[in-house]
């Protein structure tokens, strides 16, 4: 059980209090007429009070749509369908038992979860939804605390959102914005392609993996101790011949399904590519979470029928409804979180504070390296209230790309510094879109888990990653190594 010293209100209550705080702050800043100018368009952005007649009317009209339009809500439900069938049919349990014919080294399991989390940004936000519950089961299966699995996976996905060994969905979007900012300011764009930071982010993957592994092993697991909760792991039971056949059948179907999806994406037919032939905003990228969930659910269904666990379609439907009990808690937390995010966006508090801070930073006169370090720290701070990388970079690039260009610093270097600060503090902000889901996963194993519980264990990761990643950036800058292709 987690230390009660860090006890905070229930996550739903916490988001309600944050909503009230946003409402009050919007009222105060509206009285003082706080406003800024959007650097890309020159449009004035003014704080809007949620206590004004217009604000009250907006809130009452949008309470329901704020919830139903909450971005992660549909994604979570769709992903849970596939995971529910795979779990209910016994497929996930069989995978763990099948892999346990040799005794697993628990530290290898930790490394596996870390790298899966770091590489998950290839498929967008799927790591938050799919990997975390699986990581809890994997940790539990080797005698480690399941909450440690959730936290380790969460930190790997969130703090490592920019690091990868491959091209991620975020790379081309940020590069396009950087190119636009450079063109608007008549700055030589230099190398601003999707792979302009590839070498640095490739090396960063191993640095982050090392830090997350060390903090998990030396701090997180000793602090959590042994799991003594109500969910028990029944140990390993060797797979029967029927279960092995079912497993082979399910995996074979999974391989065929993956081959078909890859062929439909990368072949000359390319029905899952966008109309211009690229992957940005293509059906493959936009629907990747559904494709993953469907594939996992398909393998679970095949395993269920082949093993004898499923006999009718009613059994499959029962598997689809299995996660609803867990999602009941998530829906309550997500309702209040959705109101908080919507109120924050309506008030323009995040944009006003961030743009004011950016203008202030750009007025400081120091050496180029020191300004870059301050820029990393500033981005990490802004990330605590404005998590979306694309939203931040949409306005920050038009301020800082020309600012640093005047100091002789190329746009790809500025983008690289931005990505460090943008990722490092993801694990500690309460404004993370998937925070309600993370807390729901944690409460499945520990009913007392709150945001304070999570913060207690994640602040070290964010701090050490921010410091080490910044040092790596300084080394790269001083040595003049190329950032990417």
From TrEMBL:
<feature type="transmembrane region" description="Helical">
    <location>
        <begin position="367"/>
        <end position="386"/>
    </location>
</feature>
<protein>
    <submittedName>
        <fullName>AbgT transporter</fullName>
    </submittedName>
</protein>
<keyword id="KW-0472">Membrane</keyword>
<feature type="transmembrane region" description="Helical">
    <location>
        <begin position="393"/>
        <end position="411"/>
    </location>
</feature>
<feature type="transmembrane region" description="Helical">
    <location>
        <begin position="107"/>
        <end position="131"/>
    </location>
</feature>
<keyword id="KW-1133">Transmembrane helix</keyword>
<feature type="transmembrane region" description="Helical">
    <location>
        <begin position="198"/>
        <end position="216"/>
    </location>
</feature>
<feature type="transmembrane region" description="Helical">
    <location>
        <begin position="67"/>
        <end position="86"/>
    </location>
</feature>
<keyword id="KW-0812">Transmembrane</keyword>
<feature type="transmembrane region" description="Helical">
    <location>
        <begin position="12"/>
        <end position="29"/>
    </location>
</feature>
<dbReference type="GO" id="GO:0015558">
    <property type="term" value="F:secondary active p-aminobenzoyl-glutamate transmembrane transporter activity"/>
</dbReference>
<feature type="transmembrane region" description="Helical">
    <location>
        <begin position="246"/>
        <end position="272"/>
    </location>
</feature>
<dbReference type="Pfam" id="PF03806">
    <property type="entry name" value="ABG_transport"/>
</dbReference>
<feature type="transmembrane region" description="Helical">
    <location>
        <begin position="461"/>
        <end position="479"/>
    </location>
</feature>
<feature type="transmembrane region" description="Helical">
    <location>
        <begin position="423"/>
        <end position="441"/>
    </location>
</feature>
<dbReference type="GO" id="GO:1902604">
    <property type="term" value="P:p-aminobenzoyl-glutamate transmembrane transport"/>
</dbReference>
<feature type="transmembrane region" description="Helical">
    <location>
        <begin position="327"/>
        <end position="347"/>
    </location>
</feature>
<feature type="transmembrane region" description="Helical">
    <location>
        <begin position="284"/>
        <end position="306"/>
    </location>
</feature>
<dbReference type="InterPro" id="IPR004697">
    <property type="entry name" value="AbgT"/>
</dbReference>
């Amino acid at each position: 059980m987690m230390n009660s010293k860090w006890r905070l209100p229930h996550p739903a209550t916490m988001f309600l209090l944050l909503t009230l705080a946003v409402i009050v702050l919007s009222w105060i800043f509206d009285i003082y007429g706080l406003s800024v100018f959007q650097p890309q368009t020159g449009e004035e952005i003014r704080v809007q009070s949620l206590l004004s007649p217009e604000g009250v009317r907006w809130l009452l009209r949008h309470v329901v749509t704020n919830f139903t339009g909450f971005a992660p809500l549909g994604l979570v439900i769709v992903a849970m369908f596939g995971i529910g069938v795979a779990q209910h049919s016994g497929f996930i349990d069989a995978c763990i038992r099948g892999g346990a014919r040799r005794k697993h080294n628990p530290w290898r399991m930790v490394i596996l979860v870390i790298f899966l989390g770091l590489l998950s940004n290839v498929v967008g936000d799927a790591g938050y939804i799919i990997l975390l519950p699986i990581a809890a089961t994997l940790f539990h299966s080797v005698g480690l605390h399941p909450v440690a699995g959730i936290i380790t996976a969460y930190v790997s996905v969130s703090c490592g959102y920019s690091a990868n060994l491959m091209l991620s969905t975020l790379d081309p979007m940020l590069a396009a914005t950087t190119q636009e900012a450079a063109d608007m300011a008549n700055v030589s764009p230099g190398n601003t392609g999707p792979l302009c930071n590839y070498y640095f982010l490739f090396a960063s993957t191993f640095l982050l993996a090392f830090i997350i592994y060390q903090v998990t092993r030396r701090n997180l697991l000793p602090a959590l101790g042994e799991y003594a909760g109500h969910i028990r792991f029944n140990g390993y039971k060797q797979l029967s011949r029927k279960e092995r056949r079912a497993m082979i059948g399910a995996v074979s179907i999974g391989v065929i399904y993956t081959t078909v999806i890859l062929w439909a994406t990368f072949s000359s037919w390319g029905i899952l590519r966008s109309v211009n032939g690229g992957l940005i905003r293509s059906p493959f990228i936009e629907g990747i979470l559904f494709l993953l969930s469907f594939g996992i659910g398909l393998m679970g269904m095949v395993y269920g029928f082949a093993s004898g666990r499923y006999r009718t379609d009613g059994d499959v439907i029962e598997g689809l409804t299995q996660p609803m009990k867990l999602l009941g808690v998530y829906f309550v937390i997500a309702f209040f979180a959705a109101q908080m995010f919507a109120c924050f966006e309506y008030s323009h508090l995040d944009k006003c504070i961030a743009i004011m801070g950016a203008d202030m930073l750009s007025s400081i006169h120091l050496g180029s390296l020191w300004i870059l370090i301050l820029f990393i720290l500033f981005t990490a701070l802004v990330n605590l209230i404005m998590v979306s990388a694309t939203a931040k970079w949409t306005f920050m690039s038009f301020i800082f790309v020309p600012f640093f260009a005047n100091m002789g610093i190329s746009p790809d270097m500025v983008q690289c510094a931005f990505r460090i600060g943008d990722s490092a503090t993801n694990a500690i902000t309460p404004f993370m879109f998937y925070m309600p889901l993370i807390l729901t996963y944690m409460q499945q194993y520990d009913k007392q888990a709150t945001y304070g519980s999570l913060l207690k264990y994640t602040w070290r990761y964010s701090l050490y990653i921010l410091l080490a990643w910044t040092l790596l950036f300084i080394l790269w800058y001083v040595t003049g190594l190329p950032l990417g292709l």
